Amino acid sequence: TPPERIRNFCIIAHIDHGKSTLADRMLQVTGVVDQRQMRDQYLDRMDIERERGITIKSQAVRMPWATAEHTHILNMIDTPGHVDFTYEVSRSLAACEGAVLLVDAAQGIEAQTLANLYLAMENDLTIIPVLNKIDLPSAQPEKYAEEIAGLIGCDPEDVMRVSGKTGVGVPELLDRIVELIPPPVGDPDAPARAMIFDSVYDTYRGVVTYVRVVDGALSPRERIAMMSTKATHELLEIGVISPEPVPSKGLGVGEVGYLITGVKDVRQSKVGDTVTGERRQASEALGGYKDPKPMVFSGLYPIDGSDYPDLREALDKLKLNDAALVYEPETSAALGFGFRVGFLGMLHLEIVRERLEREFGLDLISTLPNVEYEVTLDDGKVVEVTNPSEFPSGRIDSITEPVVRATILAPSEFIGAIMELCQTRRGTLRGMDYLSPERVEMRYTLPLAEIVFDFFDALKSRTRGYASLDYEPDGTQVADLVKVDILLQGDTVDAFSAIVHKDKAYAYGVQMAGKLKELIPRQQFEVPVQAAIGARVIARETIRAIRKDVLAKCYGGDISRKRKLLEKQKEGKKRMKMVGSVEVPQEAFIAALSQD
Ligand code: GTP
């Protein structure tokens, strides 16, 4: 297809604002999927179509669309929807010339959408603003058209109104995409350059790589090279998705499609990297490539120690599909053998944990998440700390922590509550804008460490669920941080050590000591629970001694009941961990580490 007839676009939307439903309608209206095959969320469900041997999420679909003059090819490129994946979003946007900004006409724009809109504007994408769900009785298209027009600087009249559900306005939207979004430009005679905007591991085919060709062309069977690593691979298959994968004779300037090379690990096909031909290599890679950098770290331990090899295997498998996941073995006196795992953010952590539990049937404990600190010692030595147990004991000159630029959108009545929350989290207000008289956008600089710890929940509860949040990394700052240890009878319990701001050390110590006092059963002797910074104790609780006699409860001579109790106690013993001479049931560690 000649580039003038191609339009590459994505849909920027908040979860539940109707992206999948609109995509379904587009597939239908363009005839890519006929009435008979149509089912809800066609693209999302494609992974069920395994017999084709390829798993397709909705990364990119090609749709023909005929206007009065010509038939055009529309490539709809999917963007991931969450804060942790800003880099991936930025690469999907870089593969497009335009974006449909889709906003629920009954809800208005959310922080996430706003952040992605700004990203699209920075990338010079043509924005087509659209209000969805206008069939809803609660829709307020006038009000929200006004809001959107204010944000992108257009006329409220230019904000389109559609319903993904009924299909109203969808053909007009496709016409508008052809009319307003510029066709791709590139040099067809130059050496090939294609940008990878997604890569997905498939059990049957290995890694499926999604690319947008910028210059030149790629053809089947040729050898390609990845510009970041110089690694070369044979192109086993190249094609387009419409809506099933269809092998093609190649991809030219502006085209979007998939490549299969037989590599088994998404790390060999990195998002943002440039693909070129091996024989005629481009001299310069496309801009914007970055290695994924983990921001949040947590120890993951199997509750049953014998699951450790299974945990390793599960992580090795997940890694094939997740270039951002990093981990290394770690041991803890309290929790046994496990891994220290790095994540892009809290959602990434939750996703990985959930997949390990659901797909691999593992029961896990995770330690309190922490960020990466840079500790400079008095002698000038610099130590990177991703685990509180690595915190150096020498004299410390300074410590830096990562900070983020956060955007919060909320009804204006909650401004006070939000300011108060951000203040307690060491935030600095950077600016505030009214989107409308009732809605405000607040911009903060906040330490990442303060966000990873239940910030979102606190924000939601203070704003009755109305606030939305987005954030992106914004460098580091020097901060007054200390490491707080928790000691049982003088022995440090490594899993509870935390790096916290000096002003919060006392609160953390008191809270943890209190929790453990409640959770650890009495022993034969008195056990002090202390919180300490270095050698200085900042909080103390005492677990009083008890002579524990399980049989004492059994009056009378019910021998089977006695046996049962002894049996039970033995089982419980197996789950006990020794910290020095103190026996702690593993349950107590799990309960103390849970954030609620
Ligand atoms: P995620 O896949 O979770 O990101 O959501 P999404 O943005 O893709 O939204 P989805 O298409 O799944 O729609 C969310 C909900 O809104 C579903 O219950 C849809 O049925 C409903 N919905 C989507 N479009 C419309 C519409 O135009 N009108 C009405 N009334 N409901 C709609």
TrEMBL record:
Positions that bind GTP: D16, H17, G18, K19, S20, T21, N132, K133, I134, D135
What is the top-level taxon of the source organism?
Bacteria
What PROSITE patterns does this protein map onto?
Answer: G_TR_1, G_TR_2
Read off the SMART domains from this record. EFG_C
Molecular function, one GO term: GTPase activity
* Cellular component GO terms, alphabetical: plasma membrane
Q: What is its EC number?
A: 3.6.5.n1
List UniProt keywords, sorted A-Z.
Answer: Cell membrane, Elongation factor, GTP-binding, Hydrolase, Membrane, Nucleotide-binding, Protein biosynthesis
Subcellular locations according to the entry: Cell membrane
Recorded catalytic reaction(s): these are: GTP + H2O = GDP + phosphate + H(+)
Q: How does it sit in the membrane?
A: Peripheral membrane protein
According to its UniProt entry, what is the function of this protein?
Required for accurate and efficient protein synthesis under certain stress conditions. May act as a fidelity factor of the translation reaction, by catalyzing a one-codon backward translocation of tRNAs on improperly translocated ribosomes. Back-translocation proceeds from a post-translocation (POST) complex to a pre-translocation (PRE) complex, thus giving elongation factor G a second chance to translocate the tRNAs correctly. Binds to ribosomes in a GTP-dependent manner.
Family stated for the protein in its record: Belongs to the GTP-binding elongation factor family. LepA subfamily.
Protein name (record): Elongation factor 4
Report the source organism. Answer: Ornithinimicrobium tianjinense
Source gene?
A: lepA
